Amino acid sequence: PSPTMTTSMTASSVLTNSSTIYQGPFHLHSRALGLRAQQLWLMAEILTNNDDEEIFDKSFQVSISIEGVLADHSNTEEILSEADAPNRTQHLKCKKRVCEEVMILHILWLDYTHYVFNINFYGLKEFHHRYIIRDIVFYFKTYNPAFTQMETWFRFIFVMTSFFMTFWFAYMMRKYPMSDWSIEQRWIYILLPSLLTFNDPLYPLRFFPGAIMAPLIGNFFQTTFLAAVMLSWLSQYHGLRQNDRGIVSFYLFKFVLVGLCVIPAFMLGNWQKFSSYLDPTFNYMMDPDYPLVKLWFFCAITIYFLYLLILIIKAYSDLRNMPFFDIRLRCLSIVVGTVTSIITVLALQGWGPAALQDHWACQPKIHFDTSAPFMALYGLFNFYIYILAYLFSPGGGSLHETAITKDNPAFSMINDSDEEVIYGSDEESRRPLNSHHRITTDEDL
């Protein structure tokens, strides 16, 4: 099913006097909404008679009052009065006869079956006299209840699978001391519980009225998992050729870099949700600080991928002639390349990481006939971790019951400690893997 449902209503159909189409008031009634509709966006698109090639940006104010109606129509409650609602300044960007849609409000929890909106525009009188507003189309957009039901089952299946994989991997690794684990195995041990929270076991709580913490916690879980994935890529590409992995010398810069990437994403997600709970007319894209946060994010993510590219190049230049580590490097590169390629393809189609958030749904002209991209994105991260857990899990036999030693490349790749260098002594293991230091023996003297 399509992820969203959109219904529209024109201003000409609700106005008794068409001469006030530039101002209103517009009395709008939403269709019947259930809990599985999740959220409601109200947007407006202004149509004009302008035939010029001129592109212009016009500021105007929107005043709105909201009332909620119960299913039996027995009671109407005022949610937001016009006196209490702030006059939000919106920007009308037009080209020829069509203007970009403007988001009027966003209701994060649907506590009522029907909603009644009284909307007034201010500051469009001169605009109307010059370009003639033909009509205004109001869009009501919600999640598709069929999609919500499928998403709930989809998340439940992945939560149970992640729970099973987490305990299965811990069970398989139980007979090996953690000091003997490879860096891939250690990160899988961290990523599996993070994946469990990424699938959001608290998702059904969002359907309860006023459960403000559920989406905030879900956003925190998603951000934490993506941060762990980004940090694991840096650590593994660097750690394959470096055994000295101190908190300050090895991890500190990586923590700071990944933090600079995920903090603005976390801020934007929770900023919109919490502010919409307090004021449905809030839109963070109209906030003057939004361009700065956006610039912060893109600068940080650019630095991250440049640093990751440097680590990849250095890893291949140092380890391409070391068979055991070369296999691990290729395995890591195939998985990372597959994940980034699929995300890039989805991003070009208009989804990408936006599929994990709600802001893609607030565009009335963005319509998806299928939920396959959403399912593909969630499935991608889940199967990415599952495949890694399977590849780097030890064999079924006991370490002391088999004849496998660290001279065996297959065993070395999976089960050998990164603190041990093949054929090396304890002192050598503390040196970088690409060190060409020559050991002096008695025969050389």
Word description of this protein:
- This is SFRICE_024884.
- It is found in: Membrane.
- InterPro entries: TMEM181, TMEM181_GOLD, WLS-like_TM.
- With 445 residues, this protein is of the alpha+beta class.
- It folds into two domains: 4-143, Jelly Rolls; 146-391, Rhodopsin 7-helix transmembrane proteins (Rhopdopsin 7-helix transmembrane proteins, Up-down Bundle), CATH 1.20.1070.10.
- It contains nine helices and ten strands.
- The chain has helices spanning 125-131, 145-172, 183-198, 213-239, 247-278, 290-319, 323-348, 372-391, 409-415; strands at residues 4-10, 26-29, 40-48, 55-69, 76-80, 88-95, 98-99, 102-107, 114-122, 133-143.
- It is elongated and about 80 Å long.
- The N and C termini lie far apart (77 Å).
- Fourth-level CATH superfamily of the largest domain: Rhodopsin 7-helix transmembrane proteins
How far the N terminus sits from the C terminus, by CA atoms, comes to 77 Å
Oligomeric status: single chain
Q: How many DSSP-defined strands?
A: 10
CATH topology-level name of the largest domain: Rhopdopsin 7-helix transmembrane proteins
Radius of gyration computed on alpha carbons: 28 Å
Task: Please tell me the overall pLDDT.
Answer: 77
Shape: elongated
Annotation field: number of helices: 9
Are there runs of 5+ residues with pLDDT below 50, and where?
351-358, 398-445
The main pleated sheet reads as: 6 strands, antiparallel
The H/E string reads EEEEEEEEEHEHHHHHHHH
CATH architecture of the largest domain: Up-down Bundle
Report the helical percentage: 40-55%
Q: What class would the helix/strand composition place it in?
A: alpha+beta
